[in-house]
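Supplementary Methods S3. Complex input for the coenzyme A-bound model.
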Amino acid sequence: MTKNFVIVERQGAVAVLRFNRPEKLNALSPEMLAAIAGNVETLDADDEVRVIILYGGERAFAAGADIGAMAQLSPVEVAQAGTREYWLRIWAVDTPLIAAVSGYAYGGGCELAMSCDLIVAAETARFAQPEIKLGIMPGAGGTQRLARAIGPYRAMEMVLTGEPVGARELHAAGLINRLVPVERILDEALELAQTIASRPAVAVSQARKAVRYGVERTVSEGLELERTNYELLYGTEDQAEGMEAFLEKRDPDFKHR
Ligand code: COA
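Predicted complex, serialized as structure tokens:
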């Protein structure tokens, strides 16, 4: 019997993708990463799904790449393992992603959380880029996204020492959107997801693209895309409905088109 590395649950327009390798703290073997990429893509292609939550359970979001699967690999074999492609597929989805992090978010787990658009974390969650302790370095965003999120100095310390940092400190540093008691983690993520899912989907998609694009480029390049996307949204039904509803002092009835 093949193992289901992820379990997908639907709550209206929100999908929860729950990692299911608890005995290995959700370590991201190539098979596990393939399952995450495949399921995220399938959900992304479903118009009814407007937000995806990634959740690993209370003990671990994910404890990093699977060290057992990597220990003996040569550089060529690492490149051929397919994991670069799985990461690229996760990064390419259009649907907003929320990481609901409890317990360990280490290595690839921290990078997977940072691949999401928003991070909700339990007060007990711990984040680390511990690759340096294994003689390697982060390979899926740990040197880039972390530095942009919390600044180069704090990121440098995490990357060069490999030591974990608690959720409270990272919340203050700007990596975490909401810090919640562990028993509230999924409810908070769902609440946030439902709010975003209730917003007009085309505007959500265009706004998300503009933020993500701008983070990687100059302000003037970002402003160009922002303005283009802004203007395009005047062609949507939801823009007409949203503004009309405001003027008529009623709630909008968005059709997500
Ligand atoms: N790859 C493979 N297996 C892993 C793993 C990883 N990244 N992280 C945890 N596991 C496995 C452990 O080997 C153990 O398996 P076993 O019961 O068959 O021996 C199981 O998950 C539970 O982990 P354990 O170490 O016993 O739990 P802990 O609570 O004592 O410690 C961590 C948790 C996260 C601190 C510790 O597991 C750890 O340091 N993991 C590696 C983190 C890392 O370096 N990630 C980056 C990889 S590039």
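The domain at 6-198 is CATH 3.90.226.10 (2-enoyl-CoA Hydratase; Chain A, domain 1). The longest helix spans residues 30-44.
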